[in-house]
Write a structure and sequence with these properties.
- The protein is built from 28 helices and 35 strands.
- The protein has 798 residues and is of the alpha+beta class.
- Among the domains are: 240 residues, PurM-like C-terminal domain (Phosphoribosyl-aminoimidazole Synthetase, Chain A, domain 2), CATH 3.90.650; 250 residues, PurM-like C-terminal domain (Phosphoribosyl-aminoimidazole Synthetase, Chain A, domain 2, Alpha-Beta Complex), CATH 3.90.650.10.
- The chain has a seven-stranded mixed β-sheet, sandwiched between helices. It has a seven-stranded mixed β-sheet with strand order 29-32-25-33-30-34-35, sandwiched between helices. The protein has a six-stranded mixed β-sheet with strand order 1-2-3-6-4-5.
- Helix 7 runs parallel beside helix 8, helix 8 packs across helix 10 and helix 23 packs across helix 27.
- The N and C termini lie far apart (68 Å).
C-alpha cells in the first residue's frame, strides 16, 4: 500500500519547505505525481543550498582536487591525504552558523559534534579541532551573549569528547551583528586498513542504524541553514540540534571497532537532513536503492510521523551497510558500548529511496533526484565592478589626516602618538589576545599538542606512528602536523578575488612560520544570497581566487562546506549580508619537531629580520597596479579612522612562495628561532605580538622612513600585506643566514634590530622615536581587551 496523494500543495506550503514554484513543478514531473508531505520535506532539505550546492556547484568545479598526496577528495564525509610513514590524515571544515545565531551553545556544540563524526565515519580517530568564528560589535549585548554561548558550546563538546581544540581565529565586525559565523574543522588519523566510504553496495545487504535515538530536535535544519535570518528565526529553535558528547565518545570507539572487523561495506553520518540525506546519498553514490522501515528506528518521542523521522537531525546517529550475515556481530559491538544498533532496511536493486511506515510506503523517490541530479543554477556574473567596490578602490591615503614621525591628528582627539595608536590596535578585539576564549578549551588532551593556541602562527600536533602500520616501531615521535584556519573577510569584501587569494597565502604563511610545508586545503564558503547579483559576484570571484591560489601553492582542495544566505533581515525588512568569508583550513607537514618555532622572541641578543617587501619598497611594490603593502582594508583604517575601504593588499604569488620557503628552510636549519607573519595591524603590531609572546623587548631602527621613501608613516608602521614575516636569528648564525637570504631572496629582506630589554622601541634612522613602551604595558592592553568588552566595560567600548 502507499500513502501517496494526487492533491497539489499550496504555494505557502511549498515555500515553507524552501522550494521554489518551478522546482515544485520539476518534482511533480520527476515523480509523475504530486509528492506527499514527507516527500515534499525530503526534497526541501535535499534541494537546499546546504545539501545540494545548487548555486555554488558550478563554481566549485574549478578547484584543484588532485595531488600526489590526495587519497580521498571532495564528495565523501572528509578528505584524506597521505602524510607518509603509513599515516593517512582525514580533515574537514563545516559551518553551523544559523543554529548558533538562535541557540549559540547547542548550535556551536553540535557543530563540533558533526565535524567529528565526519572524521571518524572515514575510519579515522579525531586528534584535533580548530574553529573559525565571526561575531558582531562587542558593544552590542546580543553579540556578547552569542560570543559567550558559542565559545562555551565549543568548549563543552570538545572537552567532554576528549579532543584537543588546538587553534583557530576570531574576528569581530559589525557586519556579523545579526549573523555570527561558526566554522569547525577537525583532523583525524586513519586507524582502519581501508578508508570507509559512503556508497552503498551489495544487493540484500542490511542497513544498520546505530547510535542515539531519533527525536524531533533539529527538524529541517538543512533548510533552516539555507534561508536568511529574521526576527522569526527564534521560533525555529526546533531546527537546532541537541548534542551529547559523552554518547559520541562511545560512538567513535564502537565505529572504529566495527570498521576494523571488515563487516562494514559503507557508512554515512546522519548530519544535515538526517535519515533523508544518509539514505539518498548512500544509494546515489552506490548506484543502488535503499529501503528503510521507520517502524524499526529507535525513537525518543511518541507519535512521530514520517515527515518528522525523515527530517529530524537528532545527533550522534549513523547509517551502515553491513555484509549480509554479519549484522549480529556489528550490533553486539554497539550494544556493548551502550548504543542502539538495529537492522532497519536493506540495499535494493531499484535506484530509489523507499520509506516504509506502518506497513505502507510512506515515500518513494529516485535516489539521484535527491542526491545527484538536483537543480543547478548557472547565474550570470556582473559585467562591471559593483558600485561599492568602485568607490572603495577609488579611495586614496591622501584623504587621511597628515601625519609625522610624532603621530597623527585625529578628529576630537588632537595629536595622537604612534605608541597610543599601537595600544588602540592591540585593544581591538580582532587583534587582541583570544586567551579568554582558548583557555576554556582543553588543548592538551591526548598529549599530542606541541604548539597550542597563542604560541605560534599555526597549531602543531605530534604524528604518532600507529601500531597497525606495517613496519611500526615504538620510539621517539619526530614528525608533526601543522594546521590553521584563515580569512580576512574585509579584504574579500573589498576585492573578492584578491581577498580569497590572500586567505590561501596567509594560511600557507602561517604554516611556514612554524616550519611546516603546506599540503592541502579544506574550505568553508560563508556568503550572502547568491540570488543577488552582488552576492553571486562575490562568491564567484572568491572561488576563482581560491582556485588560482591553491594551484600556485600546490595545495589541492579535498573538500569543504558552502554556507550561503548568511543575511539578517533588518527592521526595515531589508536583508543585510555578512562580509563574504571564504575560510581556508590548511594542513602542513613538519619532518622534525625539533625544528619548529613560535612567534615569541627566544633569547636576548637575537637579531630581528623582515622577510618580504622591505621598508624601502613598501611605497612602490605592486602587482597589476595594486600595492603589495597598503592601508586599504587595514585594521588601522577601520579601527582608527572608522573606514572599511580601499583596495586590499595585492598578492605576489612568486614572492609569497620565495619568502615562505626561506622561512621554512631557516627553521629547518635551526637558524630561525621565532617567526611571525605581518597580518592585521602590520609591522608594528607583529613586532609587539612577538614581544608579548616572548616576554622580551626589541630595539628596532627603521632603515627607511616616510620622509625618505615618499610614503606615510602610518603605512610604514601599520600597512598590511607584502608577504612579510618577522623572524629572529641567533648571532652565531648571522653570516650563514644572511648569505642564504642574499642568494634566495635577493633584496626582499632586511635587518630590523635586536631582541633586548623589556621595552619595544622603534626609531627612525636619525634616532627620532616613533614607538616606545614597556612590554608589560603592551601586554596588559592586549591581554585584557576582549574580557573587558565581554564584561560590558563602557570605558573600553568607547
Amino acid at each position: 500500500m502507499t500513502a501517496f496523494s494526487t492533491a497539489p500543495f499550496s504555494p505557502t506550503e511549498i515555500a515553507s519547505e524552501g522550494i521554489k514554484p518551478d522546482e515544485y513543478d520539476d518534482i511533480v514531473r520527476r515523480l509523475g505525481r504530486h509528492p506527499n508531505r514527507a516527500e515534499l520535506g525530503m526534497f526541501g532539505v535535499m534541494w537546499s543550498e546546504h545539501c545540494c550546492y545548487k548555486n555554488s556547484r558550478p563554481l566549485l568545479k574549478q578547484f584543484p582536487v588532485e595531488g600526489a598526496r590526495v587519497l580521498v577528495g571532495p564528495g565523501e564525509n572528509a578528505g584524506v591525504i597521505d602524510a607518509g610513514d603509513g599515516l593517512r590524515v582525514a580533515f574537514k571544515i563545516e559551518s553551523h552558523n544559523h543554529p548558533s545565531a538562535v541557540e549559540p551553545f547547542q548550535g556551536a556544540a553540535t557543530g563540533v559534534g558533526g565535524i567529528l563524526r565526519d572524521i571518524f565515519t572515514m575510519g579515522a580517530r579525531p586528534i584535533a579541532v580548530l574553529n573559525s568564528l565571526r561575531f558582531g560589535d562587542l558593544a552590542d549585548s546580543r553579540t556578547r551573549r552569542l560570543c559567550q554561548g558559542v565559545v562555551s558550546g565549543i568548549a563543552h563538546y570538545g572537552n567532554c569528547f576528549g579532543v584537543p581544540t588546538v587553534g583557530g581565529e576570531v574576528y569581530f565586525d559589525a557586519a556579523y551583528n545579526g549573523n555570527p559565523l561558526v566554522n569547525a574543522m577537525a583532523i583525524g588519523i586513519m586507524e582502519t586498513p581501508d578508508i570507509v566510504k559512503s556508497g552503498a553496495a551489495g544487493l540484500g545487504n542490511p542497513m544498520v542504524y546505530v547510535g542515539s535515538t531519533t527525536g524531533r530536535d533539529g527538524m529541517g535544519g538543512a533548510s533552516f541553514a539555507s534561508a536568511e535570518l529574521t526576527d522569526e528565526s527564534e521560533a525555529d529553535r526546533p531546527a537546532v540540534q541537541v548534542g551529547d558528547p559523552f554518547l559520541e565518545k562511545s560512538l567513535v570507539e564502537a565505529c572504529l571497532e566495527a570498521f576494523k572487523t571488515g563487516a562494514i561495506v559503507a557508512a554515512q553520518d546522519m548530519g544535515a537532513a538526517g535519515l533523508t540525506c544518509s539514505t539518498a546519498e548512500m544509494a546515489a553514490k552506490g548506484g543502488v536503492g535503499i529501503e528503510l522501515d521507520l517502524d524499526l528506528i529507535p525513537v525518543r518521542e511518541t507519535g512521530m510521523v514520517p515527515y518528522e523521522y525523515l527530517l529530524s537531525e537528532s545527533q550522534e546517529r549513523m547509517l551502515f551497510v553491513v555484509v549480509a550475515g554479519r549484522e549480529a556481530e556489528v550490533i553486539e559491538i554497539f550494544e556493548r558500548w551502550g548504543l542502539h544498533a538495529v537492522v532497519a532496511g536493506s540495499v535494493i536493486e531499484d535506484p530509489i529511496v523507499r520509506i516504509l511506515f506502518k506497513g505502507e510506503i510512506a515515500a518513494e523517490i529516485p535516489a539521484l533526484a535527491l542526491a545527484e541530479n538536483t537543480p543547478i543554477y548557472h547565474r550570470e556574473l556582473l559585467s562591471e565592478l559593483p558600485d561599492y567596490a568602485q568607490k572603495a578602490w577609488a579611495w586614496s591615503e591622501n584623504s587621511l589626516p597628515a601625519c609625522s614621525a610624532s603621530g597623527i591628528a585625529l578628529a576630537n582627539a588632537g595629536q595622537v602618538s604612534w605608541t597610543e595608536i599601537l595600544h588602540r590596535l592591540l585593544s581591538q578585539p580582532t587583534i587582541a589576545s583570544k586567551q579568554w576564549i582558548y583557555h576554556q578549551y582543553d588543548h592538551q588532551v591526548q598529549n599530542n599538542t606541541v604548539q597550542y593556541p597563542g604560541q605560534g602562527d599555526a597549531a602543531v600536533i605530534r604524528l604518532r606512528p600507529l601500531e597497525t602500520v606495517p613496519g611500526y616501531q615504538p620510539g621517539k615521535v619526530t614528525r608533526g602536523l601543522a594546521a590553521t584556519v584563515d580569512c580576512n573577510a574585509r579584504y574579500v569584501y573589498l576585492s573578492p578575488y584578491e581577498g580569497a587569494k590572500a586567505a590561501v597565502a596567509e594560511a600557507a604563511r602561517n604554516l611556514s612560520c612554524v616550519g611546516a610545508l603546506p599540503l592541502a586545503v579544506t574550505d568553508n564558503l560563508n556568503f550572502g544570497s547568491p540570488e543577488k547579483p552582488i552576492g553571486y559576484w562575490q562568491l564567484a570571484e572568491a572561488c576563482r581566487g581560491l582556485a588560482d591560489a591553491c594551484r600556485e601553492f600546490e595545495t589541492p582542495v579535498t573538500g569543504g562546506n558552502v554556507s550561503l544566505y548568511n543575511e539578517t533581515v533588518d527592521s526595515q525588512g531589508i536583508p543585510q549580508p555578512i562580509y563574504p568569508t571564504p575560510v581556508v583550513g590548511m594542513v602542513g607537514l613538519i619532518d622534525d619537531l625539533a625544528y619548529t618555532c613560535g612567534q615569541g622572541w627566544q633569547h636576548d641578543g637575537d637579531l630581528i629580520y623582515l622577510l618580504g617587501v622591505s621598508l624601502e619598497q613598501t611605497a612602490v611594490a605592486a602587482v597589476g597596479g595594486n600595492p603589495l603593502v597598503t592601508l586599504g582594508g587595514s585594521e588601522y583604517l577601520a579601527a582608527i579612522h572608522g573606514a572599511a575601504t580601499g583596495h586590499p593588499p595585492a598578492i605576489d604569488m612568486a614572492l609569497e612562495k620565495q619568502v615562505q620557503a626561506a622561512c621554512r628552510h631557516g627553521i629547518a636549519q635551526g637558524w630561525v628561532r621565532s617567526a611571525h607573519d605581518c597580518a592585521e595591524g602590520g609591522l608594528a603590531v607583529a613586532l609587539a605580538e612577538s614581544c608579548i609572546s616572548g616576554r622580551r623587548g626589541a630595539k628596532i631602527q627603521l632603515s627607511a622612513g616616510a620622509d625618505q621613501s615618499g610614503q606615510r608613516w602610518d603605512r610604514l608602521l601599520f600597512g598590511e600585506g607584502g608577504a612579510r614575516i618577522v623572524v629572529s636569528v641567533g648571532r652565531d648564525d648571522q653570516a650563514v643566514w644572511e648569505a642564504y637570504l642574499r642568494d634566495r631572496l635577493v633584496d626582499a629582506w632586511q635587518p630590523l634590530g635586536t631582541v633586548q630589554g623589556d621595552a619595544l622601541t622603534l626609531t627612525t634612522q636619525d634616532g627620532q622615536s616613533l614607538i616606545a613602551d614597556r612590554v608589560d604595558a603592551l601586554s596588559q592592553t592586549w591581554h585584557t581587551a576582549i574580557e573587558q568588552r565581554l564584561a560590558g566595560n563602557v570605558a573600553v567600548l568607547a
